[in-house]
Design goal:
This protein has about 725 residues and is α/β, with parallel strands linked by helices. The protein has 22 helices and 16 strands. The strands form three sheets. Strands 7-8-9-10-11-12-13-14 form an eight-stranded parallel barrel. The protein has a six-stranded mixed β-sheet with strand order 2-1-3-5-4-6. The structure holds 4-O-methyl-alpha-D-glucopyranuronic acid.
């Protein structure tokens, strides 16, 4: 035996071959085990693809990969069904057999599919059919997911289609590979070696996205470097688009509104200037020559220092429509962000996006979508829903959420965001009567067919993609909720857990339980009862509720907490900034009254005395302390639960999460102690019985600096 073979044997013997590092994501395809082996094998004896497109080839290769992993063997491929247990997949257009089955494909659009047990040529078979090859691919992934989550295949009858058309990732990746708010290493896009080297990882990225229905990706940061639009970079973008195409993923770019000046040699970027219009038209033509299915532009304009139409006294609509006109002949769209607030504007920051965009309703071209963050400020652990949802009846709105956990503890805090997004999606805006939930608003394309949801990516080049195992769940949940905004966060967590950690029911229950309370724990130890934006400056790592000296008032945590000797909270009721008036009357009344505002939103909408009596009978002060301690206690409980799971989980992934939870517990205590020390310096109240004083004085916490925290904006 050769030396190398001996080393390999030793590695296998030591279990290294079975070590898991998270690279496979939820597509692990581990052996299904005895209970399921015979049943699944009987339903996967033969692959019968219809058509030979790159997408169908990708579907075949995924079936081979999945079945080899789960059942230990790859079934043979055939041109027609010739044995029991065949899997027949394709479109009616490419298969007369599928057409003859007369499946209910009508109304499923391009992306929907049917998976059904049928008889073909006298044999038992499973058909996976759709109106397009990409729909077939989605069906194949769903078929494999059923196996990964141990759902029966016999008698299967699934008919599903996405409720939103655009299901997109927004990468905040810079051209030097630094990722703004990225906690998972460098950007996946190796611009330096593209377009020649198309790393296999790009295909795995596309597989993972397609498996959850994601069909668009914006490759670069919304704080956009104009260089991405230069010919040299467009070739690299085209190479990525080529890799993603078979997986149904369209490439989009963030466009810098000032590009005509920065790289085009023009003196202005005024959207009404014919030379500027011609420049963008030529740029769009150039892009589509390289990338015929290019999706379009995402634009952050006149926000946080980015150039925009207002630099030329034009409106957001005029800016967006000028770009839309350049893309229109090619079928491209503009996604224009509503994340605006201005240093010159003294209006409550929570009101500014609505004030700016509501009057523009109906003024956007029909290939423009307005992208609105889930809440009115900025991806906080908890915010009420954004008042623009339901308030722009003539404009297709896309919701933007932040998958990367800029404000929820980066990659080391376990915070499952499915619950946070479902909370927003399920909220009733009342804008068009009861039942106008945010999900329903998003699903309504205003007759343009444009609907969508965008998630700021948490993906980097770390081996496990997202910087932690549990952050993979947020990528997964985003895809699932973008596919079906009315989906259940718990059901999604359960599917992900089975695929990621294994099928043991006790373990699954324990992990899902942890996930379901994890985000509330973060809210409790960081920003309970409606507080927001209490994070340290710049990187947003750790607490900074005392910060008051930053150049722009709305960058200071004190702007949001408004804490003083008398009380705490931001009065956004009619006696304060009146932000509540931006909501439908029913919701405004709910938020506006101390009698009805939910506790979780109390300090977002009201300034109350420290001694204010909560509906529970507790004082606000005592309740605040309770929440901080509850947050820390939940993390401690998660640590205990996790420790019990050791026998079920492979060593590397178990050890990493154990260490991360230690960090989370440490950080939760830090948040709790620092916040209490600061607020106590104002309230001068003792802690309620049973709650420990912070071990250090306020100065100690104020002095903690973490200048090298990852993911900073440059
Ligand atoms: C890309 C927040 C983040 C910024 C981000 C901005 C945005 O303010 O801190 O890093 O910029 O949101 O969404 O544009």
């Amino acid at each position: 035996m050769s030396g190398l073979a001996l080393i390999l044997l030793a590695l296998v013997g030591a279990g290294v071959a079975h070590a898991e590092d998270g690279y496979a994501l939820w597509l692990r395809y581990r052996p299904v085990g005895q209970t399921w082996d015979a049943r699944y094998t009987a339903a996967a004896t033969q692959l019968v693809p219809a058509g030979g497109s790159a997408t169908i080839t990708a579907a075949t290769s995924e079936l081979n990969r999945g079945l080899r992993g789960m059942l230990g063997a790859v079934p043979g491929q055939a041109a027609s069904v010739s044995r029991d247990g065949a899997i027949l997949y394709g479109t009616p257009a490419n298969s007369r057999v599928i057409a003859a089955l007369d499946l209910p494909l009508k109304g499923l659009g391009n992306d929907g599919f049917v998976i059904r047990s049928v008889r073909v040529n006298g044999h038992r078979a499973t058909v996976i059919a759709a109106n397009s090859d990409v729909g077939v691919l989605y069906g194949v992934f769903r078929f494999l997911e059923r196996m990964e989550t141990r759902e029966p295949l016999a008698g299967v009858d699934v008919r599903d289609a996405p409720k939103l058309k655009l299901r997109m990732l927004n990468h905040w990746d810079n051209l030097d590979r630094h990722v703004e708010r990225g906690y998972a290493g460098l950007s996946l896009w190796d611009w330096f070696t593209l377009p020649e080297w198309k790393a296999p990882r790009y295909t795995d990225y596309a597989r993972a996205n397609a498996s959850i229905g994601i069909n668009g990706t914006v490759l670069n940061n919304v704080n956009a470097n104009p260089d991405i639009l230069r010919p040299r970079f467009l070739k690299k973008v085209a190479a990525l688009a080529d890799v993603f195409r078979p997986y149904g993923i369209h490439v989009y770019l963030s466009a810098n509104f000032g590009a005509p000046v920065a790289i085009g040699g023009l003196k202005t970027a005024d959207p009404l200037d014919p030379k500027v219009q011609a420049w963008w038209k030529a740029k769009a033509d150039e892009i589509y020559r390289l990338i015929p299915d290019f999706g379009g532009f995402l634009v952050k304009a006149n926000s946080e220092g980015q150039p925009g139409p207002q630099d030329y006294h034009r409106t957001h609509a005029q800016g967006a429509n000028m770009l839309a006109a350049a893309l229109k002949p090619h079928g491209g769209i503009v996604i224009w962000r509503a994340f605006v607030y201005s240093a010159q504007n003294s209006e409550d920051r929570a009101k500014q996006a609505y004030s700016e965009f509501k009057p523009l309703d109906g003024k956007f071209a029909d290939n423009v979508m307005v992208q609105v963050k889930n809440g009115p400020i900025d991806f906080q652990p908890r915010e009420p829903f954004h008042p623009l949802f339901g308030a722009m009846p003539h404009t297709p709105l896309m919701m933007e959420v932040e998958i990367t956990k800029e404000y929820l503890g980066f990659n080391t805090h376990l915070a499952y965001l499915g619950t946070m997004w479902a909370e927003v999606l399920d909220t009733d805006t009342w804008q068009h009567g009861q039942g106008t939930t945010v999900a329903r608003v998003l699903e309504d394309g205003k007759g343009t067919g444009l609907t969508g949801m965008a998630g700021v990516s948490n993906i980097g080049n770390d081996r496990d993609w997202t910087g932690s195992e549990f952050d993979q769940a947020n990528w997964y949940a985003f895809g699932r909720l973008a596919w079906n905004p009315q989906g259940s966060a718990e059901a999604i967590a359960r599917d992900w857990t089975k695929m990621t950690w294994g099928e043991n029911p006790q373990m699954v229950d324990a992990i899902v339980g942890m996930m379901m309370e994890s985000r509330e724990a973060v809210v409790n130890y960081m920003t309970p009862l409606g507080l927001a934006h209490q994070m340290a400056t710049g990187h947003h790592h750790g607490p900074g509720p005392w910060v008051h000296n930053l150049s722009r008032p709305e960058w200071n945590p004190v702007y949001y907490n408004r804490a003083d000797a008398n009380g705490i909270g931001f009065d956004r009721s009619a006696t304060g900034s009146d932000a509540i008036a931006q909501y439908a009357p029913h919701v405004a009344a709910l938020f506006g009254s101390l009698n009805t505002v939910p506790d979780k939103d109390l300090l977002w909408f009201h300034h109350v005395p420290w001694t204010y009596r909560m509906r529970s009978g507790q004082t606000l002060w005592d309740s605040l302390i309770d929440h901080y301690d509850k947050g820390v206690a939940t993390v401690a409980q998660m640590q205990r639960t996790w420790a019990l799971l050791k026998p079920y989980i492979d060593k590397q992934r178990f050890d990493e999460e154990t260490a991360f939870m230690e960090i989370q517990h440490h950080d939760a205590l830090w948040w709790r102690n620092a916040s209490i020390a600061y607020f106590q310096s104002l309230s001068k109240l003792p802690l309620p019985a049973g709650h420990a004083e912070p071990p250090h004085d306020l100065r100690y916490y104020e002095a903690i600096k973490t200048p090298y925290a990852p993911g900073q904006a440059e």
